[in-house]
């Protein structure tokens, strides 16, 4: 009952915040904190495993469904740098500083648990703000890709650190081998489950059952991978990529249903997570008092860790991306061309004449602008993974002793989560507006790709219509056939131009079949151009949505006739 009330309250707050132009996640956290201090209020308790296995998988799966793998591959360098490299750097930096401080008694191993807990950012708020304010497409792609893999890196590091402190044994004792095993087997499990899902769908031919099956995929992928001691996060992400790329072969009803169902699931889970964070802050502080910890000392330690988290990301982003920009500027200014016959100047740079491999040619090596680097640097809000990992710290070690400084680690993690949400979440929109980031180049590119997609669907329609005119069905007057062909060719006001629904005619039947043949040919042509790499996948997906809506309208009209 308490969980239902939390969700209902969070949805109400979300609706009010959106009507007033405010960011719902931040308002939910603030309201949750205020409600937690109401006398007599008891926050709902959830097992950490529920947060990890029920909340996290569908959020990741939904993001992967809408995120094309070619886009992921195109931005693989910054995604890996932020999603893996920055997570490791943040965790070890927090561990080093926290163990060095004398404010709270943390060993390096215990501090590494804290570092792994606070290392992974949650891009939900950043992506929502960026989409509303029109951030460049590439920045959005990098942030989304980072959110898909940083959780896996952080949770793997968290498991190793907890095992070291608790004295428990992991599946593979060597941390590097364990990470490699998890990172390889997890995607394999996800890919296998994704292809099995597509195979089953082709045989179900039932939109309702296909949608229900899709809802089960993220949980199945996560649980199966975790049971095999692999990365459940990576399994879910890869399963989402596979199913997302294969949905073009499903029926239009399945695609439309899934689109709206997953949007609703995302909203439901996101508001719950932010409400849960706000509602539990007071009780984390009470746990500290019961553990006889000094609130002042923990507050100081929390402020230090929060400062580290806020500072380490801009420094790392500059080191990874800004340094490359500087190096290219130095090379451009100081290098001299090499003569055709060979030889080397004092600062000459020899270029490789060998063309890059095909997969490498698809990687975007363009540097981010300094404005984009600044925005990426300030999108480090913590969320569901930090919350779940903090709650997942065991109460006791393998020897039965209390886990060292468990309450302290949980309190610091909650403060960091709330602090980053409020500080970065509230200032990010202002920062984006001040930097005046423009998406004009993206709009030009999107328009060009959309025009390509329209040319493809028009050409496919022309081929089907030409075949229809060359081999018309029997039983209809040639003038009626010409009228049908003209209506389909125009792709406008189809339903209004069809005969009255009360009068089923051969004309309506021929119209419907021809229209479906055109749509099928258009989808095949789009997928062929996408697979050949001649059209951006996102443009293809947008066009497929348009075709699905067209088919839904025509089908609804025709079903009313028969």
Furnish the topology, listing elements before pairings:
Blueprint: H1 2-19, H2 24-36, H3 48-65, H4 69-74, H5 76-100, H6 108-118, H7 124-133, H8 137-166, H9 175-204, H10 207-227, H11 232-246, H12 252-290, H13 295-334, H14 358-361, H15 370-377, H16 384-391, H17 406-435, H18 440-470, H19 478-490, H20 494-497, H21 506-531, H22 537-559
Membrane topology: Multi-pass membrane protein
GO molecular function: potassium:proton antiporter activity; sodium:proton antiporter activity
Transmembrane segments: 49-67, 79-102, 108-131, 152-172, 178-200, 207-225, 231-248, 260-279, 299-322, 384-403, 409-432
Structural notes for this entry:
- This protein has 562 residues and is mainly alpha-helical.
- It folds into two domains: 385 residues, Up-down Bundle (Na+/H+ antiporter like fold); 117 residues, no CATH class.
- 75% of the residues lie in helices and 0% in strands.
- The chain is built from 22 helices and no strands.
- Helix 6 packs antiparallel against helix 16, helix 6 crosses helix 17 and helix 9 runs parallel beside helix 11.
- The protein starts with a helix and ends with a helix.
- About 6% of the residues have low confidence.
What CATH first level of the largest domain would be assigned? Mainly Alpha
Largest sheet features: none
- Estimate the helix proportion, in percent: over 70%
Oligomer: single chain
């Amino acid at each position: 009952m308490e969980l239902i009330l939390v969700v209902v309250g969070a949805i109400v707050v979300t609706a009010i915040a959106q009507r007033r132009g405010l960011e719902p996640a931040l308002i939910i956290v603030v309201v949750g904190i205020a409600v937690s201090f109401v006398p007599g209020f008891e926050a709902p308790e959830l097992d950490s495993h529920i947060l990890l296995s029920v909340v996290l998988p569908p959020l990741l799966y939904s993001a992967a469904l809408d995120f094309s793998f070619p886009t992921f591959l195109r931005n693989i360098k910054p995604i890996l740098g932020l999603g893996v490299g920055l997570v490791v750097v943040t965790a070890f930096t927090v561990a080093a500083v926290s163990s060095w401080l004398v404010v709270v008694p943390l060993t390096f191993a215990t501090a590494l648990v804290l570092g792994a807990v606070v290392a992974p950012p949650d891009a939900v708020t950043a992506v929502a703000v960026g989409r509303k304010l029109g951030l460049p497409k590439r920045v959005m792609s990098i942030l989304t890709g980072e959110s898909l893999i940083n959780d896996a890196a952080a949770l793997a590091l968290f498991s190793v650190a907890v095992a070291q402190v608790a004295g428990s044994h992991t599946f593979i004792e060597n941390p590097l081998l364990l990470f490699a095993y998890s990172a390889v087997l997890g995607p394999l499990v996800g890919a296998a489950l994704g292809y099995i899902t597509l195979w089953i769908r082709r045989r179900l031919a039932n939109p309702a059952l296909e949608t229900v099956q899709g809802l089960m995929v993220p949980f199945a992928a996560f649980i199966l991978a975790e049971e095999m001691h692999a990365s459940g996060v990576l399994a879910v992400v890869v399963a989402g990529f596979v199913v997302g790329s294969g949905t073009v072969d499903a029926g239009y009803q399945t695609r439309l249903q899934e689109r709206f169902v997953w949007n609703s699931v995302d909203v439901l889970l996101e508001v719950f997570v932010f409400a849960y964070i706000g509602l539990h802050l007071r009780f984390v502080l009470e746990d500290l008092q019961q553990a006889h910890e000094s609130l002042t000392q923990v507050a100081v330690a929390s402020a230090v860790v929060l400062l580290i988290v806020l500072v380490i990301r801009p420094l790392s982003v500059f080191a990874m991306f800004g340094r490359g920009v500087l190096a290219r500027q130095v090379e451009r200014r100081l290098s001299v061309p090499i003569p055709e016959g060979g030889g080397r100047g004092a600062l000459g740079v020899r270029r490789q004449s060998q063309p890059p491999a095909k997969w490498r040619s698809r990687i975007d090596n363009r540097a981010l602008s300094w404005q984009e680097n600044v925005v990426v640097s300030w999108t480090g809000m913590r969320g569901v993974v930090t919350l779940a990992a903090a709650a997942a710290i065991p109460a006791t070690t393998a020897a039965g002793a209390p886990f060292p400084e468990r309450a302290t680690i949980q309190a610091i993690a909650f403060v960091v989560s709330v602090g980053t949400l409020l500080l970065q979440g509230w200032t990010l929109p202002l920062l984006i507006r001040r930097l005046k980031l423009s998406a004009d180049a993206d709009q030009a590119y999107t328009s060009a790709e959309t025009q390509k997609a329209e040319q493809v669907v028009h050409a496919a329609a022309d081929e089907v219509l030409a075949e229809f005119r060359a081999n018309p069905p029997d039983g209809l007057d040639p003038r009626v056939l010409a009228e049908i062909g003209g209506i389909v060719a125009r792709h406008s006001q189809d339903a209004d131009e069809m005969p009255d629904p009360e009068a089923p005619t051969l004309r309506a039947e021929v119209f419907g079949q021809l229209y479906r043949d055109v749509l099928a040919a258009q989808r095949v042509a789009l997928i062929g151009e996408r697979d050949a790499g001649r059209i951006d996948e996102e443009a293809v997906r947008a066009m497929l949505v348009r075709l699905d809506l067209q088919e839904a309208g025509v089908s609804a009209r025709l079903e009313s006739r028969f």
